[in-house]
Amino acid sequence: MQRNGARIAHRGPGKRLRRGLFFKYVVLFVGLVTAVLVINAALDLYFVYRDNRRASIDVQREKAEAAAQKIESFVREIERQIGWVTQAQWASLPVEQRRFDYIRLQRQVPAITELAQFDRQGREQLRVSRLSMDVVGAGTDHSADPAFVGAMANRVYFGPVYFRKESEPYFTMAVAHGGRSGVTVAEVNLKLIWDVVSQIRIGNSGYAYVVDRLGRLVAHPDLSLVLRGTDMSRLGQVAAAIAPQGADAGPVDARNRAGIPVLSAHATIPALNWIVFVELPTAEAQQPVIGAGLRALALLVLGLLIAGLVAALLARRMVVPIRAMQEGAQRIGRGDLGHRLAIRTGDELESLADQFNRSAAALEESYVTLEQRVEDRTRELSESLEQQTATAGILQVISQSPTDVEPVLKAVVSAARRFCGADDATIVLREGDELALANHEGTLEQLVGTRLPLDGSTTAGRAVLEGRTFHIPDIDGIAPGDFALTVDLSRRTNVRAVLSVPMLREGEAIGCILLRKPTAGPYAARQIELAETFAAQAVIAIQNVRLFTEIQEKSRQLEIASQHKSQFLANMSHELRTPLNAILGYTEMMVDGLYGDMPEKAQRVLERVQGNGRHLLGLINDVLDLSKIEAGQLTLAIEDYSVADMVATVVSATESLARAKKIELRTAVSPGLPLGRGDARRLAQVLLNLVGNAIKFTDEGKVEIRARQDGDRFKISVIDTGPGIAKVDQAKIFEEFQQVDNTSTRKKGGTGLGLSISRKIVELHGGRIFVESEVGRGSNFKITIPVNAAAVREAAE
Amino acid sequence: MKHRNISRRRAIVVAAGGAALAWHGAAGARGIARIAWIAPGTVASETKFAAALREGLADNALVEGRDYVLDIYYAEGNYGRFPALTQQALARAPDVMMVVTIASVQAAQQATRTTPLVFVSTNDPVGAGLIDSLARPGGNTTGLATMADQTAPKLIELLRAALPDVREAAILVNPQNVSNRQILPRAQAAGAALGLEVRGIELDRPDGLDDAFRSAGTQRATAIVAVSDALFTFLAGKMAALAIERGIPLVGASRNFAEAGALMSYGVSFTDLVRRSAYYVKRILDGTPPRDLPVEQPTRFELLANLRTAKALGLTLPPAFLARCDETLE
């Protein structure tokens, strides 16, 4: 799992990186090419657009001029045709001739619907029409007609456009006859300009049209627009052109009637007061720009494709060796230190790969060295550990064998031989003036049992004598005369190198460890050190055994002595009691008057004898008890007892004493105390001892006995108002034969065994006795005993 | 079920035609247009007009079979058949209906207010109440006017120029053609100014021709004028032959008469008007409503003399007259 995770972690970023680099190269390259192409295309387009627009504008302007010329030439042609009938003498021709000329003129010029001849005074002489009957010599007065006036003034007159039946555009043209002899007026049907207008080619879908000064359509390729009298002044370009101040502006971007954007140019025909527009859809005008744009786009796409391909190729060339390097690094990273990169690109990448290979080689070498070091170190450590283990093993043997030195020495020689590079290890112990081979392991079996003199003839001897290590790397290197015996023995036993390490106890050698091997060569410092450690361990073991044996012997002796003492005391007490009982018996009988009345003086002596005898008996009993305890012969008689009864018994026994000393004796026993289990008689003895002591040492005041239960223990206190006990003395008073040594105690007397016995009894019950006291502030002796002493004893056992 | 199949097929056709649409333009988008032509004459008499129409449609980039189908309904000179023919034509849901004379236009206008109507050569459409004005016809009708009502006096004048000796003339009018009623007084007024007595003779059916000529003879007419009317155009050939037979010069209001054998004619070419009417069909099929298409008036009025007829009649036309002629047919 861990390995797997690690592998993924390795591979994951690797793949991502490879893609990243590859795409970075491609994107960078393509981006660069794109940027160049786009900038190029944009600039190109901009200039194409500008040039095209300028050219379009020029072309449109020219077209407008040309269209205006065509339209004007259409009219001028009519004017020229009319010129046929305007010679000065024409008016004087016969009417039939003039009529024929007009008919002929109409045939020549289909646009002329009607012709009229006015004389010098403006009277109508002749009217010829396509539609109606000819009129000759009507004589109607037209002298005020603008056509007549205009023509007479300016030779030629062009009237405004008008619409017949509100549909067909017409205009009146008048030409003065030569010598101002009259005027020929022609009504011209402008519908026929359609032929001219529709012939004007403006690009593919461009067109020309003519409007008059009012913006009404005069001519248009779509005749229906003309016939409908379309008002073009709604168009911005027309409105601008017909405006009074409307100069001959250049082409403008405009929209035509269908709302399509057009490039519009116009030119004026001043004579007619008409304006000719040429309009080309902007889309068509910009066709070259669009074409250029498409070419640029195609070039861009082509450029991108090529750039993409080239970038991919280049990026591959770049990325493949890098990828190889990355893989190599991964293999080396996985531990394949022998892996080498083979990149032959002949550039920095190859040099990088070579550098990489060198680094890998160096890494491999240092890795091998490191492995060797680790191996060495591990071996040293394991050796060291073995030695530690051996040392610890020896210590263990020492601890397991406190009384017998033999296993220890065996372990020592075994370890010394193993770890100090010797063929044979021997422990030599000093025995008086000789050295004895105590233990041995190795090849030199024949020397077992040999005793060596304790002198300078052997390395062992000198090591023991001088208390220092002797190291002979080669027997043959010893100066002649030195270590003669060692040399001799070594020669015989085929030993070449010897090491003698003294076993020192308090600076004095008790023997030595002798290490031998058959090949010459020094023992390593560590081996010597180790041998010394073994020597020290051997000394400890030997010392241990010696001490242990001594202690054991001593304690056994003490025990016997103590038993003897106790036995003696028991015997002695018994022996002492027998005559004392006799003394007391006889004394009592005498006091009781069995041997007759005694004088009062004698009576008092007898009573004193009796009192001292009893005291002596008590002392003897105490000693007996103590000796029994010491001898382990005191056993408890376990039974149920009542603390209250026990206290009452003690009080009744000591009441008289207290009364005699005028000391108040009080008790405070908690009601409802449970029955205790223990040796009632002995416990009463303890309490009696404490209360007796209290009364004995208290001269005035009171003594109080308190008893209560605390958990599974009784707590019994005896409190007095006596002199108190100093802190230093408090521990001593529970020891045998100890009494606080002062005048007061000597005056009170006592064996000093009571408290000691009490302590033993309490402790036998599993309880505790102690005192709280201060000098001059009275004493408080406290006992705590288990309610069920028997159970505690059993548990203890 | 069948219906669904058809609509599915149509959907497929429409989808497949999507690409074709761009190439075939609006006509392609519509599919094939149906053009109805209510012809006043017979198959024989209308052949040249039908051909002219097809030519005109071809000039407007409409190809028969691909862009349109042309259904022709023949009245055979009987104006009473116009309503029935119109219904017949409308039953086939034409995209455009083409009609000729005022009676035919009126029949069509009564039958439909939606199907675009194009009149081909009609006298005084405004005066006849067919349209609101030339510039803005309104309704579903547009077309081409002849101006024959206006040029009738000119015709009389030219008759006088061709035949200076004629003192009495009969003028054939069709009472079923409302414009003819206006033409008659104008012609009479023009004749009076020129010292020519003009009498009207009504002719409203193909088989009335002999009677008409007979009554002209009884009126001692030395010339017969045929005004612009579809019936007369249909009868032009017969009329001319009859005139030659009877030795009476015939004058017509269109070159079609001269071509048919009349002595002379002055006016528009009906054939040209028919050809031109294709432009209206084209515009209407391209989506322009008829009311937005102004009614055009002719600009070309031709004077023709048929020298063969003159010869047949034993007439010598004055050189001045001949010099005026736009064309002489030999």
Describe the structure.
The complex is a heterodimer of chains A (797) and B (330). With 797 residues, chain A is an alpha+beta fold. Helices cover 53% and strands 20% of the residues of chain A. Chain A has 20 helices and 24 strands. In chain A, strands 3-2-1-6-5-4 form a six-stranded antiparallel sheet, sandwiched between helices. A six-stranded antiparallel sheet of chain A has the order 14-13-12-17-16-15, with helices on both faces. Residues 1-16 of chain A have low confidence and may be disordered. Chain B is of the alpha/beta class and 330 residues long. Chain B is built from twelve helices and twelve strands. Chain B has a seven-stranded mixed sheet, with helices on both faces. A five-stranded parallel sheet of chain B has the order 2-1-3-4-5. The interface between A and B is medium-sized, with 26 and 29 residues.
Short description:
The complex is a heterodimer of chains A (797) and B (330). By secondary structure, chain A is of the alpha+beta class.
**What is the SS-derived class of chain B?**
alpha/beta
Described by strand count, sense and barrel closure, the largest sheet of chain B is:
7 strands, mixed
Give the C-alpha Rg of chain A.
76 Å
Distance between the termini of chain B: 66 Å
N-to-C series of helices and strands of chain B: HEHEHEHEEHEHEHEHEHEHEHHE
- Helix content range of chain A: 40-55%
Low-confidence stretches of chain A: 1-16
Distance between the termini of chain A: 59 Å
Helix content of chain B: 40-55%
The largest interface is: A-B, 26 and 29 residues
In total, how many beta strands of chain B? Answer: 12
